[in-house]
Prior knowledge:
Elements: H1 13-77, E1 84-85, E2 118-121, H2 128-136, E3 140-144, H3 150-161, E4 166-170, E5 178-182, E6 185-189, H4 195-204
Parallel strand pairs: 2-4, 3-4
Antiparallel strand pairs: 1-6, 3-5, 5-6
Region (Disordered): 1-39
Transmembrane segments: 45-66
Protein name: DUF3105 domain-containing protein
Amino acid sequence: xxxxxxxxxxxxxxxxxxxxxxxxxxxxIEEQRRAERARERRNRIITIAASTAxxxxxxxxxxxxxxxxNEKEQAKAAPIAGEKTWSDLGRTHxxxxxxxxxxxxxxxxxxxxxxxxxxxxxxxQIQNENAVHxxxxxxxxxxxxxxxxxxxxxxxxxKVSKTPYTLMSPYPGESSPITxxxxxxxxxxxxASDPRVNEFFDKYVQGEQTPEPGATCTGxxxx
Length: 223
């Protein structure tokens, strides 16, 4: 018969088991915290990297847009190949004929009434003094002589008719088949397809040369 003193006991076993479980829980919690901190660091790195990439793109895109704008401004500032220019042109309203130093006139004293220039295409020659007043309002005046082909006249008339602040008329006395005139600027071409025609329109229809920007091109002389 076994003695009561022969029963095996381990007084510290329960305590060690409890301590081990607590330690394990603490270890798991600490591991979870480390994992959470690692995720937060990764997320911060990803966010910073993405923000940097976006900012770089915006800055790069901004510089690209600025460069494009600068190129356009430089193109506007540069003279068109072959154009003639004049400065210090008079702007007095007169009731008499004016002896202009260029043909067709590109500015100077002019009539009180402007020639309508809202895409108007005239089949007869118009008065210089009225047309010059239109130039003062920022119009481009397209003129042609008998050397211009019918196809070119038709093409130019189509372009003028859909472009506000332009007008067109025959001008038998000019030296070039086709002449484009703005206030202080003039270009001679032989063909309507010359790419400088579009350049001239883009640059001088209500361009920076306009003495009276925004002035009307309607309500003047219509014939």
